[in-house]
Amino acid sequence: MNSNTLTDTPQRLSFGEAFYYWLKLGFISFGGPAGQIAIMHEDLVERKRWISENRFLHALNYCMLLPGPEAQQLAIYIGWLMHRTWGGIVAGVLFVLPSLFILIGLSWVYMAYGSVPAIAGVFYGIKPAVTALVAHAAYRVGSRSLKNGWLGGIAVAAFLAIFALQVPFPLIVLAAGIVGYLGGRFAPAKFTASGGHGKAVKSLGPALIDDHTPTPEHALFSWRRFSRVLAVCLALWLAGIGALTAAYGWDSVLTQMGWFFTKAALMTFGGAYAVLPYVFQGGVEHYQWLTAPQMIDGLALGETTPGPLIMVVSFVGFVGGWTKAIFGPDALLLSGAIAATVVTFFTFLPSFLFIFLGAPFIESTHGKLKFTAPLSGITAAVVGVIVNLAVFFAYHVLWPQGLSGHFEWMSALIGVCAAVALFRFKVGVIPVVLASGLAGLALTFLPPVLT
Questions:
Q1: How far apart are the C-alpha atoms of 218 and 216, rounded to whole Å?
Q2: pLDDT tens digits, residue range 174-183?
Q3: Distance of alpha carbon 100 from its chain centroid, rounded?
């Protein structure tokens, strides 16, 4: 616990202290973006007082407008504000690195031993819980964003577009953004963002970066710095995609993963659940790196490990590398691990670009952002897309052999119990997933007549 009183200004923060904190955060950042942001707020604003409430929320409001994982981007922003570019790099990398290693290990267990009855039973129970989790995510996002009939209509239209017409997810996002932009001009009251983050309600004492602390010199906007950051990030991306193309060819699995997940990283408005349908369309249907049931299992692993939920893409990469045997049938673990690493690099590189490019401008304003109407339209569309994802999951979980096959009534029972726990009793994600996995494990030991 921080020993400073509310009237003491915290001592100067060393790079080593910040490094240790970001490393620890990478291992404890459970609970999705809301939980991760809450952890950072409690630690950095209330306990350590590294940054004031208003400066924290100002940074968060910007991150909420960006595609990509807002909690990781917030960590990059604060790390950069405190310790320049290397501070941001360390904060952002350590936010996802522990999760990458954990997911590689769990993905290996899943692919190598997933057919063992006990492990298969665990995932049998987890699948319907994940379906309930996605439905709950649609409810959470919808209750926040669908404030009127206009936004509700966008959500319905997005659901019909992706469910009935198979419209690609990027086109839905583009159309929703255009509708939001036009709505902001001609019906601004209907497309005004609700904000969702209020002002501080109590004084937390002086902070290292306080409300009136001058913007550090390194955080001042300049076109020279803007150009340099853009050039470096583009060079990193070109070096990565170029090296893969030179080594394996443009049509190789690794190169296509790099290209596909670069595009996916630019589509993550509204969080990981919003981009999952796009990952489905590409990873499952187009490239066939994995199957739909495997994708559901991967989402369950992503829900129960630290780091951003979008880390599920690392599982997609691992399974794709393993399935395609990139380095031969005798090096499946290496194939999966390299593919997961490639996917992670290309998914998270844009987050660093957005912060290092835009944060100096945001630091120069310290005012409300005025371009939320397109985001309101996109967020409304995301609700419809997530509902479609829940329908997609439910179909594959309850009718694994198609509608002409048998109905998995035990899966339905587990799913209903998970939904009741989430909606009625507000139980956390991890307890719901663990309990559902134990229920599936128990079913493996019951006589066939009972299941």
A1: 5
A2: 899 899 889 8
A3: 13
